[in-house]
Design brief:
Elements (H helix, E strand, L loop, with lengths): L2 H12 L12 E5 L5 E6 L10 H8 L10 E4 L14 H8 L3 E4 L13 H7 L3 E4 L4 H5 L7
Parallel strand pairs: 3-4, 4-5
Antiparallel strand pairs: 1-2, 1-3
Helix pairs in contact: 3-4
Length: 146
């Protein structure tokens, strides 16, 4: 599979999120350096109202050496700040050794003004790509918030 296929999968996962009026619906897929899926997750998975997609996917892959050098496909830019957990998703990704992030959509200021997840990832040496052709698919499960 290629970037477009993996990001499409992440966007499909976002549609599985239980709806919320206080958080975006996001899907994420972690793929190792060989192009093999490591794990996937979505916001509020498992009934936790505070879990983010990247966080859920990373938790399933905890301790997996394939995280080092992996690519994360996320329907929304990973969060740079959050009130519900001590570490935002960008820090979780950096700490896990993820080297590349592909997103469909930059986080709007709806809940976190001045979101700068991409800039933090880039400063940490993580390659970030945005595929804007997936923005509408990523926004679809979030229309009630926009």
């Amino acid at each position: 599979m290629n970037d477009a296929s993996w990001l499409s999968t992440a966007c499909e996962l976002a549609a599985e999120c239980p709806p919320s009026n206080t958080a975006f619906s996001v899907g994420a897929v972690i793929v190792d350096a060989e192009g093999v899926e490591v794990s996937r997750g979505y916001s509020r998975e498992g009934g936790d109202p505070h879990v983010h997609a990247e966080e859920a996917a990373l938790a399933k892959a905890a301790g997996d050496p394939r995280l080092i050098g992996a690519t994360v496909y996320s329907s929304l830019e990973p969060c740079a700040r959050r009130a519900s957990r001590p570490r935002p998703c960008v820090q979780l990704l950096i700490d896990a050794g993820v080297r590349r992030v592909v997103t469909a959509w930059r986080e709007p200021d709806t809940f976190v003004p001045g979101a700068d997840g991409t800039e933090i990832l880039l400063a940490a040496g993580v390659t970030v790509s945005e595929l804007p052709e997936f923005k509408l698919a990523a926004m679809a499960p979030n229309q009630h918030l926009l």
